[in-house]
Amino acid sequence: MIKPDAPAMPPMGQTYTRGTPNMWTTASGDEQLGLVYVPLGISADDYWSGTRSDREKEFATSLVAIDVASGKTAWHFQTVHNDVWDYDLGSQATLVDFPTDHGTVPALLLPSKRGDIFVLDRKTGKPLVGVEERAVPQGGVEPEQRAKTQPFSTYHTLAQRNLTERDMWGMSPIDQMICRIEFRRASYQGIFTPPTDKPHYIEYPGYNGGSDWGGIAVDPARGVIIANYNDMPNYNRLVPREEANKLRWTPREQTRGQIGGVEGAGDPQAGAPYAINVNAGWRMPVTGLLCKQPPYGGIRAIDLRTGKTLWDRSLGEARTNGPFYIPSMLPITIGTPNNGGSVVTAGGLIFIAAATDNLIRAIDIESGKTVWQAKLPAGGQATPMTYEENGRQYLIIMAGGHHFMETPVGDEVIAYALPK
Hints:
- By secondary structure, this protein is mainly β.
- The protein has a domain of about 160 residues: Beta Barrel (Thrombin, subunit H).
- Helices cover about 5% and strands about 30% of the residues.
- The chain has a four-stranded antiparallel β-sheet, with no helix packed on it. The chain has a four-stranded antiparallel β-sheet with strand order 5-6-7-10, with no helix packed on it.
- The chain is globular and about 65 Å long.
- It starts with about 25 loop residues before the first strand and ends with a strand.
């Protein structure tokens, strides 16, 4: 996005600009308006902004509307200013007819990793529900780079209240004590706490917080949004370049640092004065359990017109989770990390997998209760789809697993038929 209006193929002798904000997730589009809506990430490096150009800062972590006829940018809406928290947009924008006192308006619902859901006019990108610029914490390693304010949606947020020492958790009083000590030592001023190297800082929601890939589902007849979400902090530290070099954190020999190859663990951020070490989920070093008390993920029904919560529940059982990375096999709902969206049927069922327990569920949209579930052969970090054939309804999902979610990897496409 250094050259947002450049042609698809660069002229002879010119090249694409490397490391600029890109789209790694799913786009959506409006055929009548001729616009495609592209959710963008951030520039390399994720946690350092001192070398970013003004153009990169303008378009990063934004939804960009592109005119399909000309390839030109029609408008863009930014959800984080000069993002150094990896809050890139992982969810696609969902097209809806948004109800207002003066009738429906062609709109977009834009969920974000930081939790806020923005409601935008599909034609112009202007907010249809309030967006406020609020003061955010300052300081960190490059204080001159930090935006004084960030945009907050007054419509709805999936983010929780700020963490406190009381939220620290463990299998024993010793575990809890260790997590409380780490909490006290870290820099934490709430959401948008600036990155620091002395000694750690807490990012909450973490980079997998709020809504990630898969996005949200909407029941237009009932006027209900269904949003599954993560509720985990990250325990981060910027690592000075000299220290990272001694640890051999280089692009070729990146350690990745944690089980499952967690994104951001031992990341060299080549070219920046700091590397980054992300403790995703903020795990204890021995047991592997999370320092924050559960739940770590949930699913919520939201009134489309008002943005009010209709019901909210934990999503995911403890079957595959446990201390020392040993599955507990316990069918106890704790609310696990979850990625992958849901699909809603006209009959009032929500179908979703997403959680780390490798289950696919049918949830009643009115009550939020699970009415059916089945075990998948691998992780279901994907959005299901449903279709009709010869008068019978089918449900299908790709069970591929995911390294970040630490679920079993597979290559099967599973189909279920609803009863005749």
